[in-house]
Amino acid sequence: MEHSDISVGLDIGTTKIVAMIGRSNDYGKIELLGIGKSKSLGVHRGVVNNITQTIQSIQMAVDEAIAVSGINIKEAVVGIAGQHIRSLQHSDYITRPNAEEVIGETDLEKLEKQVYKLVMLPGEEIIHVLPQEFKVDGQAEIMEPVGMYGGRLEANFHVVVGQVSSIKNIGRCIKSAGLDLAGITLEPLASAEAVLSNEEKEAGVALIDIGGGTTDLAIFKNGIIRHTAVIPFGGNVITEDIKEGCSIIEKQAELLKTKFGSAWPGENKDNEIVSIPGLRGRDPKEITLKNLSRIIHARVVEIIEQVFSEIKNYGHEESKKKLIAGIVLTGGGAQLKHLKQLVEYITGMDTRIGYPNENLAGDSDEQLSSPQYATAVGLLMNGLNKVAKRKTQETAAVEQEESPETVETPKPKRSIFERWATTFKDFLDNAE
């Protein structure tokens, strides 16, 4: 099997770490070759807080994926989230020396590089610079300025910022686990890649990814990312509340939540009771499902309200910015019963649960198309896109060598992520 067309997505979450190996089949769908998952022990709210444990967890997940697929992994595309991520809007322009020449990739790169020079708070670094739309000589709403004439090129950017130390720590864990970084992406963007359709991104949609430690939000409108945010709590705080509220241990609380929990307390009868074995020789505890749902409901409402206030910050209430496709919920937390109804009730927006199975080959394991694997699938897709681009470039180069008199093949656009990942890799190598 050719190893050059294989990619690996590595989702380093607060509750679990997933390594997913796959390749594109002839129909452009993803064929999963192996998956490994392990309990994530050194990550808190999306941020690494114990390097040694995180390295061990990554190695466990990777080893399992290698054992299942029989393929040796050398590099992976990694997702980052965490409470230190914030985003801002920024506009910038360049004046071109010669307006008689058409605008090219180099102009866009020059403009982007300028944004990277923005002054950040101490200890922060720009992770992504995402152009939203361009202006050429004052003409607005241009999506693709390459090939146009103009002297002044202007753009609005969505800038994602994170803490240098947190990003370096993730890089360090990957390296110590014996892997190279093939790329690095913001997790909500990866999940969006896996579960949103182009129509939804066009119409306007908010993707809410409820993970164990964080809830990530990505808003798209007119096909462009408009807003991202990371809210520092997720499914784990719900488990914590159940643990405190019912005086039971975490393992039991987690089981109660996933097996019997519901975000809507009204549907449980008063007499529905679950009995939980007591600790060593103590009597079993009896917990009413109504009570359980009340605890879950209170916390979920809090999470959704925070996300909703972010959606309002983006400007969902202005008619031009309205999110017509509503909300898509994904991540492990999206599997909570009646969550969809509660989200619709609080926000008044259409809601659906996002499954990554759209992009997977037909014979994939049912379990892998669950929302909790959305980020891993998205990261894998990101890696496979890179592989495909590399191939296109190689073919173009070969063709050019064979027939040098042909017109120059335009180089495929390097995405912002790729440019950033390259600089980030150098930055990590120098840090060693």
Topology:
Blueprint: E1 6-12, E2 16-24, E3 30-39, E4 43-44, E5 47-48, H1 51-69, E6 75-80, E7 86-95, H2 105-116, E8 124-136, E9 139-142, E10 152-163, H3 164-176, E11 180-186, H4 187-195, H5 198-203, E12 205-210, E13 215-221, E14 224-231, H6 235-246, H7 250-260, E15 273-276, E16 285-288, H8 289-314, E17 327-330, H9 339-347, E18 351-353, H10 374-402, H11 416-431
Parallel strand pairs: 1-6, 6-11, 12-17, 17-18
Antiparallel strand pairs: 1-2, 2-3, 4-5, 7-10, 8-9, 8-10, 12-13, 13-14, 15-16
* CA distance, first residue to last residue: 34 Å
Main structural class: alpha+beta
Number of strands: 18
Please trace the helix and strand order, writing H or E for each element. EEEEEHEEHEEEHEHHEEEHHEEHEHEHH
Strand content: 25-35%
Residue share in helix: 25-40%
User: What do we call the CATH topology of the domain at 235-298?
Assistant: Nucleotidyltransferase, domain 5
Unreliable residue stretches: 406-410
Rg estimate, integer Å: 23 Å
Could you give the order of strands across the largest sheet?
3-2-1-6-11
Contiguous helical run count: 11
CATH superfamily membership of the domain at 235-298, which one? ATPase, nucleotide binding domain
- Which CATH class of the domain at 235-298? Alpha Beta
Average pLDDT figure: 88
Shape: globular
Going by CATH, the architecture of the domain at 235-298 would be: 2-Layer Sandwich
What's the story with the biggest beta sheet? Answer: 5 strands, mixed
